[in-house]
Amino acid sequence: MKRHVWLAAMLCMAATGVQGQTARARLELRCEAVGAGPALECLVRVSTPKGQPVTGAQVALSATMPSMPMAHRVTPAVAVATGQPGEYRGALELEMAGVWAVQVDIDKPLRDRVVVRLQAEECPQGQARCVVQPAGGKP
Amino acid sequence: MQLEHAIGLATDIAILSLLALSVYLLLLVGRVSFGQQAFFGLGAYASGLATAIAQWPLGVALAAGALVGGVASAAVAWPTLRLPGLSYAIATLAFGEMSRVALLAWRWQVERGDTLVGPAGGDGFRDIRWLLENDVSPEFYLVICVAVLLAVMVLLACVERTRVGIALRTTGHDDTLAAAQGVPVSRLRLAAASAAGALAALGGGLYAHRATYVEPALFDPMLGVHAVGYALIGGLGSAFGPLLGVVFDLGVLDAAGVFQGWRMVAFGGVVALFLYWRPRGLLDEALVHRLQACARARRRRAPVSEAAG
């Protein structure tokens, strides 16, 4: 019992040590719905706070449904560089239509996480792809 | 990417287990709460404010969040102590919805650097960046979450072996009989509700820092109903039960990916089956007693066989 308490205390102490602050990334996210599900194809533009494109970053996309946190899990996807400076593209397979919080994780050279709420719906009949709109706060 | 996914899944299991344990604690004293998501949310907002605005260290912020959850839960439990179980369940559900709607209306943002930080109504509370600013890796955060969960489970297991633990279970089985035996039923229920609120809030604080973003929609009644489901599936025989329920849902139903959009239906079906076949869950009191008896018998046999050898 004593050993468990010490372990927890040591971990808490270790977690309170303040290290250097990380620089923040500026991020633009534009997603399109494709087919049923819907699947999302997202384009991420990453830049430094001064507006310079960030190349060679590791960018990952994932999503959760705010109405049921941690329950509707979408397998994270790596966003790969498109060739344009600071541009990355990745795809997510959503379980259902609705409000999704898309999480963009950036690692190296910056470390940041940005969450964008999107209203993901299947495209109207006759359209193969359509732009996914941001979701507003729901009552 | 698979490893990151597994680390994220394990962290979520640890966080949700704290919420499930808060429901478990109330079920032990014979109360069902559909409002534990409110304390989870209050803890998330309170500890998020503590690190993002007040710049407190994580450990202190989590403790502050747990305190807010504990006090809020006691404030809900105190006037509803004498209500029958169903009325208490409805009261907690009503409090959950009141809190969610209040958070939707709450805007209080402070300028920090070149950004505004703080709750912004339905747009949520962004930039809870303590882990990023302090370069805490997801792996290390998983260790922190698991350590917190283990500490809570060990503490609960220790309490359950004491007279207080026996009184908690007696109250849950029959509160009239417990009162006749001199158990202070009301005080015990108030203490259990307060501790349960603190546990849920602790989980909320850990969640807010993992996600960096929380919003009122996260604290929907679905989260509270799931927490009850986890405790009921896992079992009420030991503090290990709720963890088992969460592992079953997130680790088996979700990770298997067989059900896709039908997962919630599958989960609901499993809860219904358990309520019919095993109302006190997989790890119920009878099974725990059998396992303890087996362990005792093995311990008793061991010295005999050593002596014979």
As residue ranges, the low-confidence spans of chain A are: 1-21
Note the beta-strand portion of chain A. 35-45%
Given helix and strand content, the structural type of chain B is: mainly alpha
Secondary structure class of chain A reads: mainly beta
Terminal CA distance of chain B: 52 Å
Give the CA-CA distance, first to last residue of chain A.
46 Å
Strand content of chain B: under 5%
What's the shape of chain A? globular
* Approximate helicity band of chain B: over 70%
Low-confidence stretches of chain B: none
Strand numbers in spatial order across the main sheet of chain B: 1-2-3
Major beta sheet of chain A, specifics?
9 strands, antiparallel
The overall pLDDT average of chain A reads 78
Q: What's the total count of β strands of chain B? A: 3
Per DSSP, the total helix count of chain B is: 13
Helicity of chain A, as a percent range: 10-25%
Number of helices of chain A: 1
